[in-house]
Amino acid sequence: MDNGPEYIAQAFRDWCDDNGTELRFIQPGKPNQNVLIQRFNHTYRHEVLNAYVFELLYQVRQITCKWMTEYNEKRQHDRLENIPPAMFRRQLEKLENSSSELCHRRGGLREEWRAMTRATPHLTL
């Protein structure tokens, strides 16, 4: 997990404790240990949090929901062979049931996808 102020705040730590969520932080000054999440957080902050002035929490949720649909269903991701995450996931699930030759071709991406979805449940569909 990132060491940004939103993640080290006591209220956040208390919420995690109350909800049985274990926090694991990356080493300070080593964002490459968490590069997928760093990229996601940057994109979300730039395209949602910094792009609008919110007056109510429900507005954040509403815009975030629309943005997540676009992000997961329509937007091409370079690291996922220029296809949206939802399509990549469907292809990955098909590969897991196909020949080992095809599985080896995308093996690295498969492990990266699994790591990303374990770290960020909100990316799973």
Explained architecture:
The chain has 125 residues and is mainly α. It is built from seven helices and no strands. The protein is globular, with a radius of gyration of 17 Å.
Summary, kept brief:
With about 120 residues, the chain is mostly helical.
List the helices and strands and how they pair.
Layout: H1 5-8, H2 10-18, H3 35-49, H4 57-74, H5 85-96, H6 100-105, H7 107-119
Number of helices: 7
Shape: globular
Distance between the termini: 21 Å
Estimate the strand proportion: under 5%
Write the H/E string, N to C. Answer: HHHHHHH
State the share of residues found in helices, binned by percent. Answer: 55-70%
Main β-sheet description? none
**Any low-confidence stretches, pLDDT <50, length ≥5?**
121-125
Instruction: Give me the oligomer status.
Output: single chain
Number of strands: 0
Question: What is the typical, i.e. mean, pLDDT?
Answer: 79
Mind telling me the C-alpha Rg? 17 Å
- Structural category: mainly alpha
List keywords for this structure.
62% helix, single chain, disordered C terminus
